[in-house]
Structure formats: C-alpha cells, structure tokens
Specification:
- The complex is a heterodimer of chains A (87) and B (242).
- Chain A is mostly helical.
- Chain A has helices at residues 3-15, 41-55, 64-69, 73-86.
- Chain A has one domain: Non-ribosomal Peptide Synthetase Peptidyl Carrier Protein, Chain A (Orthogonal Bundle), CATH 1.10.1200.
- In chain A, helix 1 (3-15) crosses helix 4 (73-86).
- The model of chain A has no long low-confidence stretch (mean pLDDT 88).
- Chain B has helices at 20-27, 47-50, 55-67, 86-98, 104-108, 114-122, 138-152, 213-222, and strands spanning 2-13, 77-80, 129-132, 157-164, 181-188, 197-202, 227-232, 235-241.
- The radius of gyration of chain B is 18 Å and the shape is globular.
- Chain B has eight helices and eight strands.
- With 242 residues, chain B is of the alpha+beta class.
- Chain B has a single domain (2-241), classed as Peroxisomal Thiolase, Chain A, domain 1 (3-Layer(aba) Sandwich).
- Classes of the chains: A mainly alpha (87), B alpha+beta (242).
- The A-B interface holds A 16-20, 38, 42, 45-46, 49, 52-53 and B 47-48, 51-52, 100-101, 103-105, 108.
Chain lengths: 87, 242
C-alpha cells in the first residue's frame, strides 16, 4: 500500500468515525458510497471538508467531476496526487 | 382539573445508574450517582448509523428504545431537553470562532430535534413527534406536554423522553442543576377508573424551588410517596399516585 493510499484510508476512517474499520478493511478500488463501504451523502460532504483541510484541495460536492474523484480510495488518491503534481 | 394516565414502562440512565436494579438501589439510598457517565451499547442500531451518535444521542436513544420495548412503527412522542446536544453545539461554535469549516454531520445532528429524528428513522415512526425545552423545568413541562397530548388527541399511548448531559465546562458556572440523566416513559391512556397517576396544576405557587426534576420524578416513581410537587416557572404541578 502506498503511503498516500494508506493516509487517505486513515483520513476516511477518522473523518467519518468508522470506529470498527481499519485501513486494511478498505479495498483500494471498491466504491466508497452505497455499495462497498456504504457511505452516504453526509459522508461525502464530511469527506470533502476533511480533504480540503488535509490537502488544501477544494472539491465541489455536487459536480459530476467530484463524483468520479469520490468513487474509491484509488480515485481519490489519483486526484490528490494529480493536483499535487500540477499544482 | 386532573389529567389521569398510566405508566407502562419507565427507564432511566445516569452515571452509575444504568439498570432497573441500580435505580431501585438508588431510590432506597443504597447506591449513589457516580461521576463517570457510562454509555449504552445500543447494539440494536446498525454500526453505520451508530457511529454518528454522540453521548447525548446515545443516552436519549437508549431511553426511547428501552421505554418503548424497541417498538417499530407509529408512536407519538415528546422529546424534551434543556440544553440539547450542547457539547456538539459548542464544538461548532468553536469552529466558527476559529474560522474552520463546519462539520456537516455535527451541524445536522446538533439541532434540537436531531435525536428524535434519528429515532423516528430507525423505528419507521411517522406519528407526530415534538422536541421541547423549558429551562430548568424541561423535564416537568415535557411530561405535562406529553400527558396533555395524550388527552387532547385521545391517544392510546405516547412516549416521553427527557435527557440532558452535564454542560461543557465553559458553561458550568451558569447552570445550577448540572446532572447527566436520561429518562424514557411510556405513558398510556386510562380505561375507566384504573389510573395509576394524575397531574394537576395547583392554584398557588407554594412550592419552593427544586432540585433536578428528572431525579425527583424517579425518586417518586420508584418509591411509595403519594404525591410529588414541582414547578414550571410560577406554576406548581402536583403528580399523584392513585
């Protein structure tokens, strides 16, 4: 697991109070919402704020673009890395 | 005018007083309230929903579910609390002061009817539910509200839930009665003349100011005294055992 992947999993667990879940329980490419981890729309907002706080990246909660980034840990990882590289 | 009613179930939760037996020991002077508030497990609530519950929400939901025997479906309710989820509210206020983004979860679950909303979603309850507050008379005024609704709407039953937790430290000096306690009472309509309890408003305000109403009520309910008096502002209310 890359450091950033692990970090994002910890961020998700922390921000969303997923007390009984460890980073190892979250599959990189599984959907975060509805199926998979089973997060809901409030989690999406909460996660948006956590990512803004941690990486200084603003994600618009409603756009189609954001939905793609929020799909899985992997997609969030790629998004964060991409923004970091391109600034 | 007397408002008669029965109590089908009454549960409470306070630091060190969690089971029925704890409360009975407390009533007979053999057990004291402790300093440390334990939290109900709430195993019935799915983990993904349970994770968002604050200590206030957990105590309140526990009392609601236990008093109603985990009833699923329509059951009118009154939820009362003086401070609501003040711990969550003050965290939000601190975030505002520090210029942080507000947590949507905290924000959504800090409103006064948040726990009653969670309860109604979990129990698929579409009956009318109100969330009330009345200063240090919040317990008694909520109880009066529930009993009045029982009579005014000819209900067969209504669930009354009162809860307050010790306030955050920054507010402690402003609050005289600062006790963590939750109570859940399933109130039933009387048939003919078989009522257990009645409430009436006395014409004068002879009763002196009081201690924690919820604790006083539990002491009366579990004991043998025939009546208990307390106040809502200038009104004295008398609860009688039949």
């Amino acid at each position: 697991m890359s450091d950033l992947i692990y970090e994002i999993k910890e961020l998700i667990i922390d921000a969303l109070d997923l007390e009984d879940i460890t980073p190892e329980d979250i599959q990189d490419e599984d959907p975060l919402f509805v199926d998979g981890l089973g997060l809901d729309s409030i989690d999406a907002l909460e996660l948006g704020i956590a990512i803004k706080k941690a990486y200084g990246i603003k994600l618009d909660g409603n756009s189609e673009e954001s939905k793609k980034h929020f799909y899985s840990v992997k997609s969030l990882h790629d998004f964060v890395q991409n923004v970091r590289v391109t600034g | 005018m007397e408002l008669a009613f029965n109590i089908a179930q009454c549960v409470a939760w306070a630091p060190g007083l969690e089971s029925q037996q704890d409360w009975e020991l407390w009533q007979s002077g053999k057990k004291d309230i402790s300093n440390e508030l334990g939290l109900p497990q709430l195993k019935a609530i799915p983990p993904m929903q349970r994770r968002r519950l604050s200590p206030f929400a957990k105590v309140t939901l526990h009392c609601a579910l236990e008093a109603s025997n985990h009833f699923q479906g329509d059951l009118p309710c009154v939820f009362s609390s003086r401070h609501g989820d003040l711990h969550r509210t003050s965290e939000l206020i601190e975030d505002v002061v520090e210029g942080n983004d507000l947590s949507p979860t905290r924000f959504g679950l800090s409103v006064h009817n948040a726990v009653s909303g969670l309860y109604s979603i979990y129990t698929k309850n579409h009956a009318p539910i109100s969330a009330v507050s009345f200063g240090d008379a919040s317990f008694l005024s909520g109880l009066v509200d529930a009993v009045v609704k029982l009579h005014a709407h000819n209900l067969s039953e209504i669930l009354y839930v009162y809860s307050d937790l010790k306030v955050p430290e920054c507010y402690a000096e402003y609050v005289a009665q600062d006790i963590s306690i939750g109570t859940g009472i399933l109130i039933k309509a009387v048939s003919k003349n078989d009522h257990q309890f009645s409430l009436e408003c006395l014409p004068n305000d002879a009763t002196e100011s009081q201690g924690c109403q919820a604790l006083e009520f539990m002491h009366f309910f579990l004991g043998k005294n025939m009546s208990w008096e307390s106040k809502i502002n200038q009104q004295t209310w008398k609860m009688k055992r039949n």
